[in-house]
Amino acid sequence: MQGKVILEEHFAIQDTIGDSAGFAPDAVWPELESRLFDIQDRRLREMDANGVEIMILSLNAPAVQARPDPKVANDLARKANDYLAEQVAKRPDRFRGFAALPMQDPDMAIAELRRCMKDLGFVGALVNGFSQVGDEATVAYLDAPQYRPFWAEAEALDAPFYLHPRNPLMGDGKVYQGQPWLMGPTWAFGQETAVHALRLMGSGLFDEHPGLRIILGHMGEGLPYNMWRVDHRNGWMEGHKYHKGKRDISDYFNENFYITTSGNFRTQSLVDAMMEISSDKIMFSADWPFENIDHAARWFDACSIAENDRQKIGRLNAMKLFKLG
After folding, report:
1. Which of 34, 260, 261, 273 has its CA 20 to 30 A from that of 221?
2. Which of 164, 163, 165 lies closest to 154 in space, CA to CA?
3. What is the pLDDT of residues 90-115, one digit of tens each?
Protein backbone atom coordinates (compact mmCIF):
# COMPACT_ATOMS: atom_id res chain seq x y z
CA MET A 1 0.00 0.00 0.00
CA GLN A 2 1.29 3.42 -0.96
CA GLY A 3 0.67 6.65 0.96
CA LYS A 4 0.87 5.19 4.46
CA VAL A 5 1.10 7.46 7.50
CA ILE A 6 3.10 6.35 10.56
CA LEU A 7 3.14 8.07 13.91
CA GLU A 8 5.12 6.33 16.63
CA GLU A 9 8.49 7.06 15.12
CA HIS A 10 11.26 8.52 17.24
CA PHE A 11 14.35 10.69 17.04
CA ALA A 12 16.88 11.88 19.62
CA ILE A 13 19.00 14.93 20.25
CA GLN A 14 22.37 14.89 21.96
CA ASP A 15 20.78 15.68 25.33
CA THR A 16 18.48 12.63 25.18
CA ILE A 17 20.38 9.98 23.21
CA GLY A 18 21.61 8.33 26.40
CA ASP A 19 18.03 7.61 27.45
CA SER A 20 17.83 4.97 24.72
CA ALA A 21 21.18 3.29 25.39
CA GLY A 22 19.67 0.67 27.67
CA PHE A 23 17.27 -0.58 25.00
CA ALA A 24 19.92 -2.16 22.78
CA PRO A 25 22.81 -4.58 23.37
CA ASP A 26 26.22 -2.97 23.17
CA ALA A 27 26.92 -4.68 19.86
CA VAL A 28 24.02 -2.96 18.09
CA TRP A 29 23.97 0.34 19.99
CA PRO A 30 25.93 2.17 17.25
CA GLU A 31 23.22 1.19 14.75
CA LEU A 32 20.37 2.35 17.00
CA GLU A 33 22.19 5.57 17.84
CA SER A 34 22.68 6.28 14.14
CA ARG A 35 19.01 5.63 13.42
CA LEU A 36 17.87 7.96 16.21
CA PHE A 37 20.03 10.87 15.10
CA ASP A 38 19.17 10.53 11.41
CA ILE A 39 16.08 12.26 10.04
CA GLN A 40 16.75 13.51 6.51
CA ASP A 41 18.71 10.61 5.03
CA ARG A 42 18.11 6.95 5.83
CA ARG A 43 14.74 7.65 7.43
CA LEU A 44 13.42 9.07 4.17
CA ARG A 45 14.87 6.18 2.19
CA GLU A 46 13.13 3.70 4.50
CA MET A 47 9.87 5.58 4.02
CA ASP A 48 10.22 5.65 0.24
CA ALA A 49 11.04 1.95 0.05
CA ASN A 50 8.00 0.96 2.10
CA GLY A 51 5.18 3.13 0.82
CA VAL A 52 5.21 5.64 3.69
CA GLU A 53 4.26 9.16 2.69
CA ILE A 54 4.16 10.92 6.07
CA MET A 55 5.92 10.23 9.37
CA ILE A 56 4.99 12.01 12.59
CA LEU A 57 8.14 12.35 14.67
CA SER A 58 8.51 12.29 18.45
CA LEU A 59 11.34 12.51 20.95
CA ASN A 60 12.77 9.29 22.38
CA ALA A 61 11.89 8.05 25.88
CA PRO A 62 11.78 8.80 28.74
CA ALA A 63 13.66 12.05 28.02
CA VAL A 64 11.68 15.03 29.35
CA GLN A 65 9.63 12.87 31.72
CA ALA A 66 12.80 11.73 33.51
CA ARG A 67 14.08 15.24 34.35
CA PRO A 68 12.62 15.94 37.83
CA ASP A 69 13.46 19.65 37.86
CA PRO A 70 10.57 21.41 36.06
CA LYS A 71 12.81 24.12 34.61
CA VAL A 72 15.27 21.54 33.25
CA ALA A 73 12.36 19.56 31.79
CA ASN A 74 10.88 22.68 30.21
CA ASP A 75 14.19 23.79 28.70
CA LEU A 76 14.78 20.32 27.27
CA ALA A 77 11.28 20.12 25.80
CA ARG A 78 11.65 23.51 24.13
CA LYS A 79 15.07 22.60 22.75
CA ALA A 80 13.81 19.30 21.33
CA ASN A 81 10.67 20.89 19.90
CA ASP A 82 12.59 23.70 18.23
CA TYR A 83 14.96 21.17 16.68
CA LEU A 84 12.05 19.05 15.48
CA ALA A 85 10.34 22.08 13.95
CA GLU A 86 13.52 22.85 12.00
CA GLN A 87 13.67 19.28 10.69
CA VAL A 88 9.99 19.21 9.71
CA ALA A 89 10.40 22.53 7.88
CA LYS A 90 13.00 20.93 5.61
CA ARG A 91 10.47 18.35 4.37
CA PRO A 92 6.95 19.42 5.35
CA ASP A 93 5.59 17.09 2.69
CA ARG A 94 7.02 14.08 4.55
CA PHE A 95 7.26 14.94 8.25
CA ARG A 96 5.06 16.29 11.05
CA GLY A 97 5.82 16.71 14.74
CA PHE A 98 4.53 15.69 18.16
CA ALA A 99 5.36 18.05 21.01
CA ALA A 100 7.48 16.90 23.94
CA LEU A 101 6.01 18.40 27.11
CA PRO A 102 7.30 19.20 30.63
CA MET A 103 4.45 17.58 32.54
CA GLN A 104 6.34 18.19 35.79
CA ASP A 105 4.67 21.62 35.75
CA PRO A 106 1.17 21.72 34.23
CA ASP A 107 1.36 25.45 33.50
CA MET A 108 4.64 25.01 31.61
CA ALA A 109 3.13 22.04 29.76
CA ILE A 110 0.12 24.13 28.74
CA ALA A 111 2.33 26.93 27.47
CA GLU A 112 4.55 24.56 25.49
CA LEU A 113 1.62 22.66 23.98
CA ARG A 114 0.07 25.94 22.91
CA ARG A 115 3.37 27.13 21.39
CA CYS A 116 3.90 23.86 19.54
CA MET A 117 0.38 23.73 18.13
CA LYS A 118 -0.01 27.41 17.24
CA ASP A 119 3.53 28.56 16.42
CA LEU A 120 5.39 25.42 15.34
CA GLY A 121 2.54 23.72 13.52
CA PHE A 122 2.72 20.41 15.38
CA VAL A 123 -0.18 17.98 15.17
CA GLY A 124 -0.38 16.88 18.81
CA ALA A 125 1.79 15.75 21.70
CA LEU A 126 3.56 12.60 22.78
CA VAL A 127 4.37 12.13 26.47
CA ASN A 128 6.38 9.23 27.87
CA GLY A 129 4.12 8.06 30.67
CA PHE A 130 4.47 9.35 34.22
CA SER A 131 6.82 12.21 35.06
CA GLN A 132 9.36 12.32 37.85
CA VAL A 133 8.77 15.54 39.77
CA GLY A 134 11.10 17.20 42.24
CA ASP A 135 13.24 14.11 42.81
CA GLU A 136 13.96 10.78 41.15
CA ALA A 137 11.52 8.79 43.30
CA THR A 138 8.43 11.03 43.13
CA VAL A 139 6.14 10.36 40.18
CA ALA A 140 2.99 11.99 38.83
CA TYR A 141 0.37 10.27 36.68
CA LEU A 142 -1.81 12.26 34.35
CA ASP A 143 -5.12 11.53 36.09
CA ALA A 144 -3.98 13.67 39.03
CA PRO A 145 -6.11 16.76 39.75
CA GLN A 146 -3.34 19.23 38.91
CA TYR A 147 -3.51 18.13 35.27
CA ARG A 148 -7.17 19.02 34.69
CA PRO A 149 -6.30 22.50 33.31
CA PHE A 150 -3.81 20.88 30.94
CA TRP A 151 -6.44 18.48 29.64
CA ALA A 152 -8.88 21.36 29.20
CA GLU A 153 -6.29 23.13 27.03
CA ALA A 154 -5.56 19.98 25.03
CA GLU A 155 -9.26 19.65 24.30
CA ALA A 156 -9.56 23.33 23.38
CA LEU A 157 -6.59 23.04 21.01
CA ASP A 158 -7.99 19.79 19.56
CA ALA A 159 -4.55 18.26 20.18
CA PRO A 160 -4.36 14.44 20.01
CA PHE A 161 -2.24 13.07 22.85
CA TYR A 162 -0.04 9.99 22.44
CA LEU A 163 0.52 8.21 25.77
CA HIS A 164 3.84 6.48 25.14
CA PRO A 165 5.43 3.85 27.40
CA ARG A 166 8.28 4.04 29.84
CA ASN A 167 9.52 1.48 32.34
CA PRO A 168 8.29 1.70 35.93
CA LEU A 169 10.81 2.86 38.49
CA MET A 170 12.44 -0.13 40.13
CA GLY A 171 11.07 0.88 43.51
CA ASP A 172 7.56 0.59 42.02
CA GLY A 173 8.28 -2.48 39.91
CA LYS A 174 9.50 -5.08 42.34
CA VAL A 175 7.76 -7.82 40.39
CA TYR A 176 10.43 -7.32 37.70
CA GLN A 177 13.41 -7.60 40.02
CA GLY A 178 15.76 -10.31 38.86
CA GLN A 179 13.88 -10.59 35.55
CA PRO A 180 15.32 -7.86 33.32
CA TRP A 181 14.02 -9.60 30.19
CA LEU A 182 10.50 -8.57 31.23
CA MET A 183 11.33 -4.87 31.13
CA GLY A 184 10.74 -2.62 28.14
CA PRO A 185 8.70 -3.80 25.16
CA THR A 186 8.52 -7.42 26.32
CA TRP A 187 6.02 -6.64 29.08
CA ALA A 188 6.70 -3.70 31.40
CA PHE A 189 6.03 -1.03 28.79
CA GLY A 190 2.59 -2.40 28.02
CA GLN A 191 1.57 -3.04 31.61
CA GLU A 192 2.68 0.39 32.80
CA THR A 193 0.93 2.22 29.97
CA ALA A 194 -2.27 0.18 30.15
CA VAL A 195 -2.68 0.94 33.85
CA HIS A 196 -1.97 4.63 33.21
CA ALA A 197 -4.66 4.67 30.50
CA LEU A 198 -7.14 2.93 32.78
CA ARG A 199 -6.46 5.52 35.45
CA LEU A 200 -7.40 8.23 32.96
CA MET A 201 -10.59 6.40 31.99
CA GLY A 202 -11.61 5.77 35.58
CA SER A 203 -10.89 9.31 36.79
CA GLY A 204 -13.90 10.97 35.18
CA LEU A 205 -11.59 12.89 32.82
CA PHE A 206 -13.59 12.06 29.71
CA ASP A 207 -16.88 13.03 31.34
CA GLU A 208 -15.40 16.50 31.85
CA HIS A 209 -13.56 16.63 28.52
CA PRO A 210 -15.28 14.33 26.01
CA GLY A 211 -13.39 15.86 23.08
CA LEU A 212 -10.02 14.48 24.17
CA ARG A 213 -8.33 11.97 21.87
CA ILE A 214 -5.71 9.67 23.42
CA ILE A 215 -3.50 7.36 21.37
CA LEU A 216 -1.93 4.13 22.59
CA GLY A 217 0.69 2.19 20.69
CA HIS A 218 1.52 -1.50 20.35
CA MET A 219 -2.02 -2.54 19.44
CA GLY A 220 -3.47 -0.83 22.50
CA GLU A 221 -1.05 -2.15 25.14
CA GLY A 222 -3.26 -5.22 25.64
CA LEU A 223 -6.40 -3.25 26.54
CA PRO A 224 -8.64 -4.27 23.61
CA TYR A 225 -8.52 -7.87 24.80
CA ASN A 226 -9.42 -7.04 28.41
CA MET A 227 -12.26 -4.52 28.12
CA TRP A 228 -15.02 -6.98 28.91
CA ARG A 229 -13.33 -8.17 32.09
CA VAL A 230 -12.59 -4.63 33.22
CA ASP A 231 -16.28 -3.76 32.98
CA HIS A 232 -17.70 -7.05 34.27
CA ARG A 233 -15.55 -8.02 37.24
CA ASN A 234 -17.55 -10.10 39.72
CA GLY A 235 -20.68 -9.45 37.68
CA TRP A 236 -23.12 -10.88 40.22
CA MET A 237 -22.01 -8.48 42.99
CA GLU A 238 -24.31 -5.47 42.82
CA GLY A 239 -23.78 -2.14 44.49
CA HIS A 240 -20.06 -1.64 43.91
CA LYS A 241 -18.74 1.60 42.43
CA TYR A 242 -15.26 0.82 41.25
CA HIS A 243 -14.22 4.11 39.62
CA LYS A 244 -15.21 7.77 39.28
CA GLY A 245 -16.35 7.64 35.66
CA LYS A 246 -20.04 7.96 34.87
CA ARG A 247 -19.89 5.30 32.17
CA ASP A 248 -18.33 1.93 31.50
CA ILE A 249 -14.60 1.91 30.90
CA SER A 250 -15.19 0.36 27.47
CA ASP A 251 -17.30 3.39 26.49
CA TYR A 252 -14.35 5.71 27.08
CA PHE A 253 -11.96 3.33 25.35
CA ASN A 254 -14.12 3.16 22.25
CA GLU A 255 -14.94 6.87 22.09
CA ASN A 256 -11.80 8.64 23.32
CA PHE A 257 -8.95 6.33 22.34
CA TYR A 258 -7.10 5.37 19.20
CA ILE A 259 -4.51 2.61 18.97
CA THR A 260 -1.61 1.97 16.61
CA THR A 261 0.10 -1.15 15.30
CA SER A 262 3.55 0.02 16.42
CA GLY A 263 5.82 -2.88 17.33
CA ASN A 264 2.99 -5.43 17.15
CA PHE A 265 2.82 -6.85 13.64
CA ARG A 266 0.37 -9.73 14.09
CA THR A 267 -2.81 -10.16 12.07
CA GLN A 268 -4.75 -12.04 14.76
CA SER A 269 -4.14 -9.20 17.20
CA LEU A 270 -5.17 -6.61 14.61
CA VAL A 271 -8.41 -8.42 13.83
CA ASP A 272 -9.24 -8.74 17.53
CA ALA A 273 -8.59 -5.02 17.98
CA MET A 274 -10.79 -4.19 14.99
CA MET A 275 -13.64 -6.16 16.54
CA GLU A 276 -13.27 -4.30 19.85
CA ILE A 277 -12.51 -0.70 18.88
CA SER A 278 -13.27 -0.78 15.10
CA SER A 279 -11.01 -0.08 12.15
CA ASP A 280 -11.93 3.61 12.44
CA LYS A 281 -9.81 3.88 15.61
CA ILE A 282 -6.65 2.03 14.54
CA MET A 283 -3.64 3.55 12.77
CA PHE A 284 -0.62 1.94 11.22
CA SER A 285 2.78 2.60 12.80
CA ALA A 286 6.18 0.94 13.00
CA ASP A 287 8.10 2.23 16.08
CA TRP A 288 11.20 3.19 14.11
CA PRO A 289 14.06 3.04 14.93
CA PHE A 290 13.43 0.40 17.59
CA GLU A 291 11.49 -1.70 15.07
CA ASN A 292 12.00 -1.86 11.32
CA ILE A 293 9.70 -0.02 8.93
CA ASP A 294 10.07 -2.78 6.36
CA HIS A 295 8.97 -5.44 8.87
CA ALA A 296 5.87 -3.39 9.67
CA ALA A 297 5.05 -2.53 6.07
CA ARG A 298 5.49 -6.03 4.63
CA TRP A 299 3.20 -7.44 7.30
CA PHE A 300 0.56 -4.73 6.98
CA ASP A 301 0.47 -4.68 3.20
CA ALA A 302 -0.15 -8.44 3.10
CA CYS A 303 -2.29 -9.03 6.19
CA SER A 304 -5.71 -10.55 5.55
CA ILE A 305 -8.06 -7.62 6.14
CA ALA A 306 -10.47 -5.87 3.78
CA GLU A 307 -8.94 -3.25 1.52
CA ASN A 308 -11.17 -0.47 2.85
CA ASP A 309 -9.95 -1.31 6.37
CA ARG A 310 -6.35 -1.30 5.13
CA GLN A 311 -6.84 2.17 3.67
CA LYS A 312 -8.41 3.50 6.85
CA ILE A 313 -5.77 2.01 9.16
CA GLY A 314 -2.86 2.72 6.86
CA ARG A 315 -3.71 6.30 5.95
CA LEU A 316 -7.20 7.76 6.21
CA ASN A 317 -7.69 7.64 9.99
CA ALA A 318 -4.44 9.49 10.62
CA MET A 319 -5.11 12.01 7.86
CA LYS A 320 -8.44 12.85 9.50
CA LEU A 321 -7.32 12.84 13.13
CA PHE A 322 -4.28 15.02 12.54
CA LYS A 323 -5.88 17.17 9.79
CA LEU A 324 -3.09 16.38 7.37
CA GLY A 325 -5.13 17.45 4.35
Report:
1. 34
2. 163
3. 999 999 999 999 999 999 999 999 99
